[in-house]
């Protein structure tokens, strides 16, 4: 069973951040999944749902628009089940992720951007177009697939609640498709309505504006390039009802905190994980943690797939991480 390999990832107490911010900080380490990211969760749910509802026949092609991690999860799971994968990535995707996708057996197309279905040059539009014009191809469409939220509602949220023995007071995660924060946030809010669910996005992203105003901004600009999070459209998998606030950070401070955290702990964080740390550093006073709070930071992947664009040049590429649970592909 593939399900037994995905999820149930560790929750690690972080001494360095707990000491720095005078509270109790835990990190949900999603790089222990087979594809080494949180995206294995929705990838599995979306694939299983499509197969169960006969939206794709055996041997067909699963199609996705992805910054890399969801694409990798879909590719690995599809291959295990006897399907193929066609992944559309934007030109901003890290070379490490592209290498992983190729190694996993994905057919890849690189697109100009990931600006949503309204843009003919976007990953989303081209993925949808491919799926609609090729036989036995199914577009999982993580940005609008309800299974994205459901995966985190059914797995991530309950795991965190159990691992903290119901004592969690804050959940903080980067926001890209919105599936993680919406699904986990909904479950956690159902258990404790006063829990704080906070999102992190890059400067220029519009999700925070939408959360406050429930409308789109009049003008949009390019948002800071923090891979995996931030949007200039509102994904269907973002449910604002379960998010209390979204903080913005810039790319420079995110890179700085990634390197600072690595120097202090020897741990390489992923890009959006570093953005979460950057938000702590920038907004700690506003966040107002107490010494008794239980703060869970969501780290969706590992820094070894961002070395070429995130870490300083003097950092040599480490030996590949060997902590994920692999099933036989």
UniProtKB/TrEMBL annotation:
The keyword ATP-binding does not apply. The keyword Hydrolase does not apply. InterPro entries: Cys_Synth/Cystath_Beta-Synth, P-phosphate_BS, TrpB-like_PALP, TrpB-like_PALP_sf. Its cofactor is pyridoxal 5'-phosphate. It holds the Pfam family PALP. Gene3D superfamilies: 3.40.50.1100. It comes from the Bacteria. Residues 3-300 form the Tryptophan synthase beta chain-like PALP domain. Keywords: Pyridoxal phosphate. PANTHER family: CYSTATHIONINE BETA-SYNTHASE. This is Cysteine synthase family protein.
């Amino acid at each position: 069973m593939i399900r037994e390999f995905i999820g149930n990832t560790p929750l690690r107490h972080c001494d360095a951040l707990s000491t720095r911010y005078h509270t109790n900080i835990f990190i949900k380490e999603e790089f222990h999944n087979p594809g080494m990211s949180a995206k294995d969760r929705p990838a599995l749910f979306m694939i299983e749902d499509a197969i169960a509802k006969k939206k794709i026949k055996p041997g067909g092609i699963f199609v996705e628009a992805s910054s890399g991690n969801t694409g990798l999860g879909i590719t690995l799971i599809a291959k295990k089940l006897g399907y193929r994968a066609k992944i559309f990535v934007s030109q901003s995707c890290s070379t490490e992720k592209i290498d992983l996708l190729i190694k996993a057996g994905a057919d890849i197309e690189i697109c100009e951007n990931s600006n949503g279905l309204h843009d003919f040059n976007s990953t989303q539009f081209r993925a949808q177009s491919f799926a609609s014009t090729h036989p036995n191809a199914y577009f999982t469409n993580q940005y609008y697939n309800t299974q994205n939220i459901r995966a985190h509602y059914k797995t991530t949220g309950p795991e965190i609640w159990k691992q903290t023995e119901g004592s969690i007071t804050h959940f903080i995660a980067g926001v890209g498709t919105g599936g993680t924060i919406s699904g986990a946030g909904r479950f956690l809010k159902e258990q404790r309505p006063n829990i704080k669910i906070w999102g992190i996005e890059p400067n220029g992203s519009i999700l925070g504006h939408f959360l406050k105003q429930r409308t789109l901004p009049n003008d949009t600009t390019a948002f800071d390039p923090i891979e995996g999070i931030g949007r200039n459209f509102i994904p269907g998998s973002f449910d604002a009802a379960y998010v209390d606030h979204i903080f913005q950070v810039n790319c420079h401070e995110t890179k700085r905190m990634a390197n600072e955290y690595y120097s202090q702990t020897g741990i390489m964080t992923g890009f959006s994980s570093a953005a979460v740390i950057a938000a702590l550093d920038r907004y700690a006073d506003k966040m107002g943690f107490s010494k008794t709070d239980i703060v869970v930071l969501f780290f969706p992947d590992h820094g070894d797939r961002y070395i070429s664009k995130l870490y300083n040049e003097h950092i040599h590429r480490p030996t590949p991480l060997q902590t994920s649970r692999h099933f036989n592909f």
